[in-house]
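hey so i finaly got around to running the thing on Protein-L-isoaspartate O-methyltransferase from Kaistella yananensis. pasting the sequence first so u can double check i didnt mess up the copy paste, my clipboard has been acting weird all day
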Amino acid sequence: MQDSFLHKGKRKILVEYLRDKIGISDINVLKAMNEVPRHLFLESIFEDFAYQDRAFPILAQQTISHPSTVAEQTELLELQEKEKVLEIGTGSGYQTAVLVAMNTWVYTVERQKDLHDFAHKKLRELHLRPKFQSFGDGFAGLPTFAPFDKILVTCGAEILPTELLHQLKVGGKMVIPLGKTDEQILTRFTKKSEKEFEKEEFGAYKFVPMLNSTNQ
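ok and heres what it spat out for the C-alpha cells, dont ask me to read them lol
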C-alpha cells in the first residue's frame, strides 16, 4: 500500500474531526496524526476505513485503538520535544509512530513476538524509528534506560504496575488505563516526589488487557 493523496485527504478530515468534535487542542498531536499513515499499520482489507474513528483487529488477537483514543492518551502526556518516553505495548506500531513523529525519544516494549516483528519492520520502512524497541515484559519496563519523562501504557491494567512508577522522573507523567477487563478508567499519574503522586481520571475506555511475561 502507498500513501496516496486520497489517504492524506482522509487524514486531514480525521484530524479536523479530532480537533472539532473530540476536542484535541495540542497542535503537535494533531500534526503528528496528520503525518502518520494509519492505513499502513492495518491489514489491507481495512484500508478504506483506516481514517474512521474505529478500532480494528491486528495480529495476536490484539487491536489498534481508535484514533481519538490515541490522540487523547498522547495529549494527556503533555509531551515536549526530546523527552524520553516509555511506551508499554507497541502493538502494530501506530501509537509509537505518532510519538516518534512528535520528535520525542521513544523506548517501546511489546510482549507479542509477531507484533514486535511487524512493528519493527513497519517503523523502519517509514523511517519512524524509536530509540529502542524491545520484545519483553511490559510490567518490568526498561530499567536500563530509566528514568523517563513520560510513560504511556496502551493496554488495560487491573493492578497498577508500580515498577513503572519507579522508572518515572520526578515531575514526569504516566498515562495508563486502570480497571477490570470489561472497562478501564484512563488515569494520569504525575510524580511529585519519589513517594508522592497526583492521580487524575479521564473517563471510561475499553483496552486489551495488560499481561505479564512474553508470548512467542
